[in-house]
Design brief:
Layout: E1 12-17, E2 20-31, E3 37-38, H1 42-51, E4 59-69, E5 72-76, H2 91-97, E6 107-109, H3 115-118, E7 122-123, E8 128-129, E9 135-139, H4 140-146, H5 149-154, H6 157-176, E10 180-183, E11 186-189, E12 192-196, E13 205-211, E14 214-218, H7 226-229, E15 236-237, H8 243-260, E16 263-265, E17 274-280, E18 283-288
Parallel strand pairs: 5-6, 6-9, 9-10, 14-16
Antiparallel strand pairs: 1-2, 2-4, 3-15, 4-5, 7-8, 11-12, 12-13, 13-14, 16-17, 17-18
The chain binds zinc ion (ZN).
Zinc ion is lined by residues 114, 116-117, 221, 267-268.
Amino acid sequence: MSNAPRTQVDGVYHRKLGDVLVTGLSDGYVDMGYGIFRNIPEEETKAILARDHRTSPPRISVNAFALRMGGKTYLIDCGSADIMGPTCGRLPANLATAGIDPASVDGVLLTHVHPDHSNGLTDAATGRRLFPNAEVIVHESEINHWFNDELMARAAERPRRRYFEAGRTQLSPYMAADRVRTFKGGEILPGVTAIPAAGHTPGHSAYVISSQGQLMIVWGDTVHVPEIQVARPEVTMEFDTDPEAAAIARQKVFDMVVADDMLVGGMHLHFPGFGHMRREAGKYSLTAEQWAFDI
Ligand SMILES: [Zn+2]
């Protein structure tokens, strides 16, 4: 068995949506503890994960998505670089496999500023922009929140370091180069509409991509652990800025997805992170999308 493989195939999955080539890109995974959940007893969490044959405590995927459309290349989120440890930080290698040169990326759309989503923007040691020709597109409340000195001074040590300080390190070089565009909502690129879904963070946003009558939502951190939060949208996370608002936003996004039968892309859905939702007897469920053999 000396020739047995030790690594999985590359974390790249392509899928056409009308005229848009959508690519799911893995940044790796992170092992969480049971302590991340709010509004659910630990025994119940364990029972659900065991029922679904999932890693327990949960192991969650960290994904980003690329959009190639109209001759341009965009990323939605950009991985974590080295801040999440050795199980993450795989996005640059997977970008290369997907044939995407970071210098060719025209824009990075952030669902929010958190280490597993935005820490791949800048080399923290040198301040070098890793996507030198990209504009960063983000909800204005993310900038207002993470650059608020008063809030940063009040934050506990770990969130201050990992969210406020790391967020500033990542975004500041793009701001200095006048390469950050903020929005409140609405169409931010041709065929791409920002849907603010605040709660997990103050400017957390989903993006709806529309092409040739097909719709996809990339919903960021609307769900962290699908086995738990799809059926139980009221279950919130330790790291939600405003848990109550996050639960309401989750419910709203679910309703939108079901009403328009959108394809879902999730940053923490199991790689490659594509699925479909339905609602039956008031309960939501999510099915992983069938593998696309031909692109
Ligand atoms: Zn996340």
